[in-house]
Write a structure and sequence with these properties.
seven-stranded mixed beta sheet; 25% strand; 5 helices; 182 residues; alpha+beta
C-alpha cells in the first residue's frame, strides 16, 4: 500500500492587476469570511494588493500547485511595522503571516494542511526568520487547529481594530518537530 504524498508548491509574487480577478473570486466567497473582504469590488481588491505591492513591509505571493496554476494566497509582513505594531513585544526575526485557500466544490483531504506546511516552510527558508507570528480571528477554530498542527502555540487574545485575534507563535524548532511527527 502506497502513502499519498503531499503536493509540491511553488511561489511567485502576486501581480495585483493580472491576478485581481482571481483574487476577487477567492476573497469575496462566503467561505473566506475571515479575510474580511466579502463586499469588496474588483477595484477594491486591485487597490488593496497594489498597496501591498508598494509596501516594503508587506508582501503577497501566490502559491502554485503542481500544474503551475494558482492554488492559494500567502502574505507575509514585518509585525514591527504592520498588523501587530504596538500589540505585542516583537523579537528579532519575527515574521507575520496570512494564508487563504480558495473555496472549492471538490475539496481534497489534507490540502489546507499541505498549504500551511508549505507556507511556514517557505518562510523558514530565510535564515533570518526565527519566529512566525499569526493573529487569526478568535472564532476561526479551523485555522487554530491547522496552526497547532504545524507548531504554532497560542499566547493570548489581542484586540485589533477589525477583530479579536488569537496571537500565536511558531519557532523553526517547533515547526520542524511538528512536521517530523507526521
Amino acid at each position: 500500500m502506497s502513502t499519498p504524498t503531499a503536493p509540491t508548491f511553488a511561489f511567485r509574487p502576486l501581480d495585483p492587476l493580472r491576478d485581481a480577478e482571481l483574487l476577487h473570486s477567492w476573497v469575496t466567497h462566503p467561505k473566506a469570511a475571515y479575510w474580511m473582504m466579502q463586499d469588496a469590488r474588483l477595484e477594491d481588491v486591485e487597490r488593496a494588493y497594489l498597496e501591498i505591492a508598494a509596501d516594503e513591509h508587506h508582501h503577497a505571493l501566490l502559491g502554485l500547485g503542481p500544474d503551475g496554476a494558482p492554488a492559494f494566497l500567502m502574505e507575509h509582513y514585518d509585525p514591527v511595522h504592520r498588523e501587530l505594531a504596538g500589540l505585542y513585544e516583537p523579537e528579532p526575526g519575527d515574521v507575520g503571516m496570512h494564508f487563504l485557500t480558495p473555496a472549492t466544490d471538490a475539496p481534497v483531504h489534507g490540502f489546507t494542511k499541505a498549504v500551511i506546511t508549505a507556507v511556514v516552510g517557505h518562510l523558514f527558508e530565510d535564515p533570518a526568520t526565527r519566529r512566525i507570528v499569526v493573529e487569526p480571528d478568535v472564532r476561526n477554530t479551523a485555522v487554530h487547529a491547522l496552526n497547532e498542527a504545524v507548531g504554532f502555540v497560542p499566547v493570548r487574545e489581542i484586540e485589533k481594530p477589525e477583530k479579536r485575534a488569537l496571537l500565536s507563535f511558531c519557532t523553526r524548532e517547533r515547526f520542524e518537530r511538528a512536521v517530523a511527527a507526521v
